[in-house]
Sequence to fold (140 residues):
Amino acid sequence: MIPYKISNIVTKQFAIFPEKFVNGEIVNINTNYNFNLKVDFSEIRCSSVIQFIQKEHLILVLEVVCNFNIAAEGVDFIKNENKIPVDFLRYMATIVVGTARGIIHSKTEGSVLNSIVLPPINLVDTIQSDFQINEKSNCN
Fold:
């Protein structure tokens, strides 16, 4: 495991459209995940966009970012391996999903959309490979 601490959480985007929600109808959930690595390898950013869609209508969108400070031994590991292992990527994404679940619950309180809970997400199927380090991988 790469030693880390969560350094920052940012809700970059949040919008709900409760007027388009039909109670009892199926809600589809789309998610995506992105990872960026700071140039000196001291921070990894995991971001996710989550969309709730019902009958082709967007009813909720959330973009959340968690920044993870990486301890010196983790930085050395990443440099030596020239990658971030898939298991650690999934671990960070799991933290982001839990954070998103809390944000959605909190921000939809008092609305009809509060009855929709972000379900568990199988990140093994979603994130399938290591993050290979190259010059385009890094962020500032």
